[in-house]
Protein backbone atom coordinates (compact mmCIF):
# COMPACT_ATOMS: atom_id res chain seq x y z
CA UNK A 1 0.00 0.00 0.00
CA UNK A 2 1.37 3.38 -0.94
CA UNK A 3 0.91 6.07 1.74
CA UNK A 4 1.02 9.78 0.87
CA UNK A 5 3.95 11.72 2.30
CA UNK A 6 2.96 14.63 4.52
CA UNK A 7 4.79 17.97 4.24
CA UNK A 8 6.86 17.28 7.38
CA UNK A 9 8.38 14.11 5.91
CA UNK A 10 6.13 11.67 7.76
CA UNK A 11 3.77 9.33 5.98
CA UNK A 12 0.09 9.62 6.72
CA UNK A 13 -1.30 6.16 7.45
CA UNK A 14 -5.03 5.61 7.21
CA UNK A 15 -6.18 2.91 9.59
CA UNK A 16 -8.87 0.57 8.36
CA UNK A 17 -9.29 -1.39 11.60
CA UNK A 18 -11.12 1.41 13.44
CA UNK A 19 -8.51 1.58 16.21
CA UNK A 20 -7.56 5.06 17.29
CA UNK A 21 -6.20 6.66 20.40
CA UNK A 22 -8.95 8.41 22.31
CA UNK A 23 -8.42 11.54 24.35
CA UNK A 24 -9.28 10.90 28.00
CA UNK A 25 -9.56 13.93 30.24
CA UNK A 26 -8.69 13.04 33.83
CA UNK A 27 -8.40 16.01 36.15
CA UNK A 28 -6.56 13.88 38.70
CA UNK A 29 -3.86 12.70 36.32
CA UNK A 30 -0.88 15.01 36.67
CA UNK A 31 -0.01 17.15 33.65
CA UNK A 32 3.66 16.53 34.38
CA UNK A 33 5.73 14.60 36.82
CA UNK A 34 6.36 16.14 40.23
CA UNK A 35 9.98 16.80 41.17
CA UNK A 36 11.74 13.84 42.75
CA UNK A 37 11.45 13.01 45.52
CA UNK A 38 8.01 14.31 46.42
CA UNK A 39 6.10 13.15 49.50
CA UNK A 40 2.32 13.24 49.80
CA UNK A 41 1.65 15.15 53.01
CA UNK A 42 -1.67 13.30 53.44
CA UNK A 43 -0.70 9.61 53.15
CA UNK A 44 3.11 9.59 53.09
CA UNK A 45 3.50 8.01 49.64
CA UNK A 46 6.72 9.01 47.86
CA UNK A 47 7.03 9.90 44.18
CA UNK A 48 10.31 8.30 43.14
CA UNK A 49 11.60 6.75 39.91
CA UNK A 50 8.60 8.03 37.99
CA UNK A 51 5.81 6.64 40.17
CA UNK A 52 4.18 6.85 43.60
CA UNK A 53 5.54 4.22 46.01
CA UNK A 54 5.51 3.32 49.68
CA UNK A 55 9.05 4.23 50.74
CA UNK A 56 10.65 5.79 53.77
CA UNK A 57 10.31 9.54 53.63
CA UNK A 58 13.46 11.20 52.25
CA UNK A 59 14.92 13.99 54.40
CA UNK A 60 14.76 16.74 51.78
CA UNK A 61 11.64 16.00 49.78
CA UNK A 62 9.11 18.24 48.09
CA UNK A 63 5.62 18.09 49.56
CA UNK A 64 2.45 17.70 47.54
CA UNK A 65 -0.83 15.78 47.53
CA UNK A 66 -0.89 12.54 45.53
CA UNK A 67 -3.77 12.02 43.03
CA UNK A 68 -5.48 9.43 45.27
CA UNK A 69 -5.52 11.73 48.30
CA UNK A 70 -6.76 14.59 46.12
CA UNK A 71 -9.70 12.42 45.00
CA UNK A 72 -10.42 11.55 48.64
CA UNK A 73 -10.25 15.20 49.72
CA UNK A 74 -12.57 16.20 46.85
CA UNK A 75 -14.95 13.26 47.46
CA UNK A 76 -14.66 12.40 43.74
CA UNK A 77 -14.32 8.61 43.20
CA UNK A 78 -13.13 7.05 39.95
CA UNK A 79 -14.79 3.70 40.61
CA UNK A 80 -18.15 2.68 42.06
CA UNK A 81 -18.71 -0.95 43.04
CA UNK A 82 -22.25 -1.92 44.05
CA UNK A 83 -22.67 -5.25 45.86
CA UNK A 84 -26.16 -6.65 46.27
CA UNK A 85 -28.35 -9.74 46.30
CA UNK A 86 -29.56 -12.33 48.79
CA UNK A 87 -26.29 -14.28 48.69
CA UNK A 88 -24.31 -11.10 49.34
CA UNK A 89 -26.51 -10.16 52.29
CA UNK A 90 -26.19 -13.60 53.89
CA UNK A 91 -22.38 -13.74 53.33
CA UNK A 92 -21.60 -10.04 53.69
CA UNK A 93 -18.74 -10.32 56.19
CA UNK A 94 -16.89 -12.96 54.16
CA UNK A 95 -17.36 -11.04 50.89
CA UNK A 96 -16.27 -7.73 52.43
CA UNK A 97 -13.13 -9.47 53.73
CA UNK A 98 -12.32 -10.44 50.12
CA UNK A 99 -12.94 -6.83 49.01
CA UNK A 100 -10.60 -5.40 51.65
CA UNK A 101 -7.92 -8.07 51.12
CA UNK A 102 -7.90 -7.37 47.38
CA UNK A 103 -7.55 -3.64 48.04
CA UNK A 104 -4.68 -4.21 50.50
CA UNK A 105 -2.77 -6.33 47.97
CA UNK A 106 -3.23 -3.72 45.23
CA UNK A 107 -2.45 -0.79 47.51
CA UNK A 108 0.81 -2.39 48.68
CA UNK A 109 2.17 -2.16 45.12
CA UNK A 110 0.16 0.80 43.83
CA UNK A 111 -0.44 3.55 46.42
CA UNK A 112 -2.96 5.29 44.15
CA UNK A 113 -5.36 2.31 44.26
CA UNK A 114 -7.47 2.74 47.39
CA UNK A 115 -10.96 2.27 48.73
CA UNK A 116 -12.40 5.67 49.58
CA UNK A 117 -15.58 4.65 51.39
CA UNK A 118 -18.00 1.79 52.05
CA UNK A 119 -21.67 2.79 52.39
CA UNK A 120 -24.78 0.76 53.11
CA UNK A 121 -27.77 1.67 50.92
CA UNK A 122 -31.11 -0.10 50.50
CA UNK A 123 -29.94 -3.74 50.92
CA UNK A 124 -26.77 -3.00 48.94
CA UNK A 125 -23.25 -1.89 49.68
CA UNK A 126 -21.50 0.80 47.68
CA UNK A 127 -17.68 0.75 47.61
CA UNK A 128 -16.01 3.80 46.08
CA UNK A 129 -12.42 3.70 44.86
CA UNK A 130 -9.74 6.14 43.75
CA UNK A 131 -8.96 4.07 40.65
CA UNK A 132 -11.14 2.48 37.98
CA UNK A 133 -8.88 -0.58 37.77
CA UNK A 134 -9.29 -1.32 41.47
CA UNK A 135 -13.10 -1.34 41.14
CA UNK A 136 -12.83 -3.63 38.10
CA UNK A 137 -10.33 -5.92 39.85
CA UNK A 138 -12.48 -6.30 42.96
CA UNK A 139 -15.51 -7.06 40.79
CA UNK A 140 -13.56 -9.71 38.88
CA UNK A 141 -12.27 -11.24 42.13
CA UNK A 142 -15.83 -11.48 43.48
CA UNK A 143 -17.09 -13.03 40.25
CA UNK A 144 -14.22 -15.53 40.24
CA UNK A 145 -14.77 -16.53 43.88
CA UNK A 146 -18.57 -16.49 44.06
CA UNK A 147 -19.89 -16.25 40.47
CA UNK A 148 -23.05 -14.13 40.29
CA UNK A 149 -23.76 -11.41 37.74
CA UNK A 150 -21.05 -8.87 36.98
CA UNK A 151 -21.82 -5.75 34.96
CA UNK A 152 -19.57 -2.81 33.96
CA UNK A 153 -20.45 0.66 32.75
CA UNK A 154 -17.53 2.90 31.73
CA UNK A 155 -17.96 6.60 31.07
CA UNK A 156 -14.90 7.75 29.10
CA UNK A 157 -15.79 11.45 29.32
CA UNK A 158 -15.48 11.34 33.11
CA UNK A 159 -12.98 8.43 33.35
CA UNK A 160 -15.50 6.76 35.64
CA UNK A 161 -16.33 3.06 36.05
CA UNK A 162 -19.45 1.63 37.64
CA UNK A 163 -19.31 -2.07 38.54
CA UNK A 164 -22.40 -3.97 39.72
CA UNK A 165 -22.11 -7.42 41.28
CA UNK A 166 -25.35 -9.21 42.13
CA UNK A 167 -25.56 -12.62 43.75
Describe the structure.
By secondary structure, the chain is an alpha+beta fold. It folds into two domains: 38-72, no CATH class; 77-166. Helices cover 28% and strands 27% of the residues. The chain has helices spanning 67-74, 86-90, 92-109, 132-146; strands at 38-40, 46-48, 51-53, 62-64, 79-84, 115-121, 124-129, 149-155, 160-166. The strands form two sheets. It has a five-stranded mixed beta sheet with strand order 6-7-5-9-8. A four-stranded mixed beta sheet has the order 3-2-1-4, with no helix packed on it. Helix 3 packs across helix 4 (132-146). The longest helix has 18 residues, at 92-109. The N and C termini lie far apart (52 Å).
> How much of the residues is beta strand, in percent?
25-35%
Distance between the termini: 52 Å
Number of domains: 2
Q: What structural class should be given to the helix and strand makeup?
A: alpha+beta
Q: What does the average pLDDT come to?
A: 88
Report helical residue fraction: 25-40%
Rg computed from alpha carbons, rounded to a whole number of angstroms: 20 Å
Q: Estimate the global geometry from the Cα principal axes.
A: elongated
Write the element-wise H/E pattern from the N-terminal end onward. EEEEHEHHEEHEE
Work out the helix count: 4
The total strand number stands at: 9
Which strand order spans the largest sheet, edge to edge or round the barrel?
A: 6-7-5-9-8
What kind of sheet is the major sheet?
A: 5 strands, mixed
Low-confidence stretches: none
